[in-house]
UniProtKB/TrEMBL annotation:
This is histidine kinase. It is an enzyme of class 2 (transferase). GO terms for cellular component: plasma membrane. It is a multi-pass membrane protein. The chain crosses the membrane at residues 30-49, 56-73, 85-104.
Length: 359
């Protein structure tokens, strides 16, 4: 490969000399031969800048031969009638070599700086990737360990002090263990769903679904977690069937309701709104919480990204990224915005003309 590159460089050197010769031939009636040397020097500089030191020296050598053959009397021979041209040849060749060396050195330094810059960029990207992987591993370890510690603590207390505990205390410990087990189960489920989405193994089964049934399934799944939280529904009149995967879109709504439930104030309501926007179905879940800093709005759908909200229980950072994956698998889009009156609104757009899969 290097031999071919070298041959290519020398061939280009010959082309540069041929081009300089053509130019000199065009201006020959107007210039004395010694002035044409400058044209050949330009060819040498171009070769040094683009091809390197050796092709540039070859260009200087070929230039001397071409200049002698085509323009030094007697023309079209390598004979030299006037001996001072020998000095011109020597001076031209020496200057050509010096220019070649200097330009080639600058070129090599430039290439070296570019190489070092690329290596530094690769090292920076590798370091950033390692930091991200370490952060993800720490995050996953923390999310797995936290509920396990709570479950183990509750069960140990029941085992060691069960007979001495009051019925209320035993019930609280059992509820704590149950809640943490559900939390752990959701986290593992989210990890599995995310893996399936990234592997392309999760494909929506599109079929006509009742919009009210979709919302009802999500509300039913969230009934315990929502507790006394008020949820207002606004569904479009006359629209009953929408083509989508009921199971997957139920999970999307559950994740959005769960997210709103975490960040809404204690007495704040959650609003679920559906409407038709041309050929799209718009589903919005909005809360009355503190919203999200503007700089983070574009990142909240990234996996393991968590919005830091004081005095709130953080999520796993997977729910919204799973929503995004499922919605995009439906050919739709999802976006979040802060509401002018306060709170966060997450809107899903789904195409109404999706094809229904044959059973």
């Amino acid at each position: 490969m290097s031999v071919l590159v070298a041959i290519r460089g020398y061939l280009i050197s010959l082309l540069l000399v041929a081009g300089a010769t053509v130019i000199c031939e065009q201006v020959r009636p107007h210039l004395v031969p010694t002035n044409m040397v400058m044209v050949y020097l330009l060819a040498v500089v171009a070769a040094a800048a683009k091809l390197g030191r050796r092709p540039a020296i070859a260009t200087a050598f070929f230039s001397v031969l071409a200049f002698d053959f085509f323009f030094v009397p007697p023309r079209l021979t390598f004979s030299v009638a006037e001996k001072e041209y020998l000095v011109t040849f020597l001076g031209f060749f020496v200057v050509g070599v010096m220019i070649s060396s200097l330009v080639a050195k600058v070129r090599e330094q430039s290439l070296e700086r570019e190489r070092l810059s690329q290596e530094a960029e690769k090292a920076r990207i590798l370091q950033a990737r390692e930091n991200l992987e370490r952060a993800l591993l720490n995050s996953i370890s923390h999310d797995l360990r936290t509920p396990l510690v709570s479950i183990k603590g509750a069960l140990s207390a029941l085992k060691e002090q069960g007979e001495r505990l009051t019925p209320e205390a035993r019930r609280d410990l059992l509820e704590t263990a149950n809640d943490e087990a559900e939390r752990l189960n959701r986290f593992v489920g989210n990890l599995l769903d995310l893996s399936r989405l990234e592997a392309g193994a999760l494909r929506p089964r599109i079929e006509p679904c009742d919009l009210q049934e979709l919302v009802g399934c999500a509300m039913s799944a969230m009934e315990v977690r929502l507790g006394d939280r008020k949820v207002t529904l606004q569904l479009p009149q006359g629209l009953t069937l929408v083509s989508l995967d009921l199971v997957l879109m139920t999970q999307v709504l559950v994740n959005l309701l769960d997210n709103a439930n975490k960040y809404a104030p204690a007495q704040g309501s959650i609003e679920v709104t559906a409407r038709i926007c041309g050929a799209w179905l718009s589903l919005t879940v909005a809360d009355r919480g503190a919203g999200v800093p503007e700089a983070e709005l574009f990142h909240i759908f990234e996996k393991f990204h968590r919005v830091q909200v004081p005095e709130k229980t953080g999520g796993t950072g997977l729910g919204l990224s799973i929503c995004k994956g499922i919605v995009e698998a439906h050919g739709g889009s999802i976006a979040a915005r802060n509401r002018p009156e306060g709170g966060l609104a997450v809107e899903i757009l789904l195409p109404l003309d999706q094809g229904v899969e044959e059973p």
